[in-house]
Amino acid sequence: MRIAVLGAGVIGVTAAWELLRDGHEVVLVDREAEAASFTSAGNAGLISPGHAYAWASPAAPGMLVRSLWRNDQALRFKPSLDARLWSWTLKFLGQCTEAAAARNTAAKVGLCTYSRDRLNLIAEETGIAFSHVTDGCLFLHRSQAALVAASKKAEVLRRQGVEVRTVTMAEAVAIDPALAPITNQFAGALYAPGDQSGDCRTFVRALAAKVAEAGGDVRFGTTVQALDISGDRVIRAVTDKGDVVADAYMVSLGVMSPFLVKNAGLDLPIYPIKGYSLTAPVAGRNNAPRIGGIDEANLIAYARYDDRIRVTATAEFAGYDTSYTEKDFRHMYATIRSMFPDAADWQRTEFWAGLRPMTPTGLPIFGRGRVQNLWMNTGQGHMGWTMGAGSARIAADLIAGRAPEVDTAGMMLPN
């Protein structure tokens, strides 16, 4: 079968790879000049079933309200006249109950664990080097009360088979000696030994090259403008470089996915949630972290990429704006420098902002609606790097008529 994969971030490229492995002819289309040039370009780098909690939780509404006058909240709400912002936010708030948070978290954990294992298979199969660290992640807490509460919260992960254990700061230092100078800042940590980290952009670009080497038709600098639909089938994808004709079409366009599929009768509940990251060179510094982690009080994540450190923070309900100013990074920049002052050449920091394709549940969207050859693989939100390889296998299995190997409850389009 000839399948057009629309979007060449981590979701689209891993899907293209799995479809090629299944024997399909693949056309991979993206508007950027290279793969992983939008959301996949600057993400946290953590591959983390051990932190696969649903963002919609009983604590989330308070964060959104406080963010109206405070700039240090992990979730920030910027009111606008965008009707989609308000409708999406209402759906998000509807998922902020304890029952919904537990249900959505359990589903996320299952997908994330499966996806981590699928990513490891692709990495082994292809030999791609992407600063892959497989020694776990540390989730640091600044008070004993927060640590106890976090360990209790982690029971939902443990019930899904994820190993998460509470460690003292002395034990955390044994895991990552870079924490030794700041043991006084934290009460302890949760350690997820099965978690990993790596450079998503490097991996995706190398895998896109392998897609092309394996016979995939890779078309960068090509913007998908519309889907031409007749009856219950897409007959072509219209682009600014001519038509793409295929037997089936997979939508992996992240935050742009809802606009492309409206004429297919689909109203995808995906909205951009803005995130910020900074990257600094290690440049011979002597106390860079060995493994990835999160300062849970500030929800600031960090990961080591060989000669660089990536730091990310903030989830901002701010529409399709990717601009930023110095003050957007002020809190995360000060925090990471207080944690690891000698870890990098912070004066050479590069800054970035991107848009996560979030659904209210935090779960991705798979399957098809009334249009029989139009498949979704989108909405992976803030965990696209963690979910990507598993999502690719799920999407490929669905196209092949096979039952996915992982439970997709809450992720499927209604037929």
TrEMBL record:
Stated EC number for the protein is: 1.4.99.-
What GO biological process term is on the record, naming one? D-alanine catabolic process
Q: Which GO terms describe its molecular function?
A: D-amino-acid dehydrogenase activity
> Keyword Cytoplasm, does the record have it?
no
Q: Which UniProt keywords apply?
A: Oxidoreductase
Annotated FAD dependent oxidoreductase domain residues: 2-398
A Pfam family recorded for this sequence: DAO
Q: Which Gene3D superfamilies match?
A: D-Amino Acid Oxidase, subunit A, domain 2, FAD/NAD(P)-binding domain
Top-rank taxon of the source lineage equals: Bacteria
Q: Name one GO cellular component term.
A: plasma membrane
Asked whether the UniProt record includes Oxidoreductase among its keywords, one would answer yes
Question: What InterPro entries does the record point to?
Answer: FAD-dep_OxRdtase, FAD/NAD-bd_sf
Q: SUPFAM superfamilies from the entry? A: FAD-linked reductases, C-terminal domain (SSF54373), FAD/NAD(P)-binding domain (SSF51905)
Family, per the entry? Answer: Belongs to the DadA oxidoreductase family.
The entry's protein name is: D-amino acid dehydrogenase
The organism named in the record is: Futiania mangrovi
